[in-house]
Amino acid sequence: MLAGLASTIPAAAAVAVEPARLYITTELLAPSSMMEGGRVVGIATDKVREAMRRSGVDYRIEVLPWKRAYHAALTRGDACVYSTTRTPEREALFKWVGPTDIAQWVMLGRADRKLRLRSLADARGLRIGTYNGDAREAWLRSRGFTLDSTSNDLSNLNKLMAGRIDLWAASMRSDSNVLARFGYQKQVVPLLVFNEIGVYLACNRAVPDELIGRLNGAFADMARDGTGRRIERSYEGWEPAPGPAGPRGRPEF
């Protein structure tokens, strides 16, 4: 019996020291996450990879449509998803790591229409293009705005230019120049920043608190030592592939 017990100790010890492994999902959302040479890169991606490295966490990243990526983190005990907007409605659904970035929610409109929005109240009665399943859509819908939802956020650009919607509720980094990069800076203009909010790596509630703490500690260290800002600067010269979306994914407006 003792011999049999002894034979189980190495196996139990091996399980105890096995490194944590996470299944991480994201969508193609340049410049936060895009494909280059068969590998996922981007501002948020590089920050997540660095946090995993510093925390000694094994992981794999898979690119999926947003709804599937989000659903995986809700239902798999080893899963996390980025870049996820942290809203009060989502707070209890996940354990949060980050932020990976700060996003501005912006109402975009056609320059030739010369719309003026002094506040969000001025958008009432206008048709707003949103992205199905996105936090902006849920936020605006809960406040009674008139929405026209799509399963592909970039199609809102075509709908805006065709006059099928009046406004596009987009997410932009504060230093974004993506409208100019895609040649729309004279056709599409920001009219109102209506919210500023953090985006995070959102992990399933089953991910251990100790691991979440290590990852948040890594993000805090990256902010203190300048690594996060260095990653952001490394993408300042990023240029999208030709076309509205290109193989790297839809642009993060």
Automatic annotation (TrEMBL):
Limits of the Solute-binding protein family 3/N-terminal domain: 29-235
Gene3D superfamilies per the UniProt record, alphabetical: Periplasmic binding protein-like II
Top-level taxon of origin: Bacteria
Entries under InterPro entries matching the protein: Solute-binding_3/MltF_N
Ranges for region Disordered: 234-253
UniProt protein name: ABC transporter substrate-binding protein
